[in-house]
Write a structure and sequence with these properties.
The chain has 142 residues and is α+β, with helices and mostly antiparallel strands. It has one domain. The radius of gyration is 16 Å and the shape is globular. The two termini are 20 Å apart.
Amino acid sequence: MTIGLQQIRAALRGGGGPDPTGDAFFRLLGLSSDSSLRLSPSTSAWQWALVELFSVAMSDVKDAAEPCEAFAKRVQQGFNHAAFALSHCRRDGLDEWRQSGKEADVFIGGWLANEQLDLKLPSDFLAQCARLGLSISMCTND
């Protein structure tokens, strides 16, 4: 991981349609408000429901002996946690969500200090995305 990546956040998103969906996405996935994940329901038109899988910023590890290594370690731990969280999501709930005309994906957002991105996506995380039929979208410096 290079020093270029300053912040990264991964979220499972569910949305589509002009009406707010509240916490329906979470219920179909089998997630409840008492889970260790941060859940942001859809409360307005076209707003997608979000399940924050993890978020890491370089500023979180600036005092570490090796900040870049500490950041990379936290990012990999975040992806491992995300894989675990996704392993508990119900595929049939996502299928029901999609059959109602809605969409779901994993969004990875980041902030780069320069133009290089070096990011390793662990196979367990990718396997859970594949099991759930989730595409992965990535955007930096948006």
